[in-house]
Every structure is written in structure tokens, then in C-alpha cells.
Amino acid sequence: MAKSKKAQGLEELAAQIRVCTRCPLHESRTLAVPGDGKFSAKVMIIGEAPGKEEDESGHPFVGSAGRFLNHVLEGTGLDRNDFFITNTVKCRPPKNRTPKKLEVDTCTSNYLFEQIALLNPKLIMLLGTVAAKKVLGVKSINEARGRVILHEGRKYLVGYHPAVRFYREDLGEKVKEDFALLKREVKKVKR
Ligand code: SF4
User: Fold this and answer.
1) What is the DSSP string of 14-35?
2) The ligand 1 atom nearest the CA atom of 106
3) Do residues 51 and 92 lie in contact, with contact meaning Cβ atoms separated by under 8 Å?
4) Which 3 state secondary structure label does DSSP give 156?
5) pTM for the structure as a whole
6) How many domains in the chain?
7) What does the pLDDT look like over 101-134, one tens digit per residue?
8) Domain span at 97
């Protein structure tokens, strides 16, 4: 069967990302991480940047963040394969530093916004300040979390990245709240 235009477009973008040298982050990466998931996914999750395990495997949300997501999805009838999961920048910044503006601007203008346009999901969850600022222009996570934001014809949620729990224990409850809201909204999208 011929591939859909969407599948073809997303696969082409992934192939470009894997060999991309458009910003300095390509110098320190092991593997670029284009994103994983069904091309028919109605929900997209966008984090900040690949971490160590993602850089080594070439896949997003592996390790503890992946286990956390699997736990959150228990009882929804969905698993992580029902989502398209990616990051704002596709290559790991040295020592996990925050990606710089030039890196974020270069990567999103070439890849992330095209992925969103092709996938056309009903709901997007943005995890972390970098993703929320770039996609929605919000100043902080606290300003935007805990509610559904309608933007350019689709629903957005903003939340803390699950990894934040390891260095900010005080944010653990907020992470749980953010993913509880995702769980509720995912059920609506599924209908
Ligand atoms: S972070 Fe994005 S723009 Fe920079 S090298 Fe990787 S894929 Fe290319």
C-alpha cells in the first residue's frame, strides 16, 4: 500500500534530523532523536531536549521518564505508542544544559513546527519552559499549567517535565497534577 503523505513527510523529516548539522548541538550528540509514535496519533508530547539515555538510544522518553509516562497512562486504554513523542530540539545539549535560543530557533523552524503541521494532533502537551515558551510564548510554566489552552485550533497543556522531580522534590506533586490533567484530556480526545 502507498504511504500517506503524512507518513512520508514525517519519515523524511526524521531522516533529515538524523544527519542534521544545522546548529552546534550536532557536535556533541551521539544520536539525534527525531521522535517516536504513530503517525495517526491525536496527542503529541513535546519535551525540551534529549537526555543521556535518549542520546544513546535515539528514542525519546526512555528510562525513568518513560516509566513515569507508562504509569500515568495505566487505565486510559492507551499506551505510549498512541502518542507522538518528541523534543523541542532533537540533539542532546552538552551536560544537559538548557538549549540556547539559536539552537531552539534553528531546530523548531526546520523540524518541530513541520512535525506539528504534518501530524496535526488534537492535543499537544508541552513539558518544560523551553517548549512552552517557544510554542505558546508563555513566560513560565506556572503561568500556563493546570488548564487547557486553545491556540491555533487545537488544545495545549503545559506542565513540568517528569525529570524535574529528581532535582526539585517540591515539584513532584505538580508533576502528578499535570499528568492527571493530561490523562483526563486524553480520554476526551480518544472519544
Ligand atoms: S538540534 Fe536540531 S537543528 Fe541542531 S543539529 Fe540537532 S537536529 Fe539539527
Assistant:
1) HHHHHT--SSGGGGT-SS----
2) 3
3) yes
4) strand
5) 0.93
6) 1
7) 999 999 999 999 999 999 999 999 999 999 999 9
8) 5-190
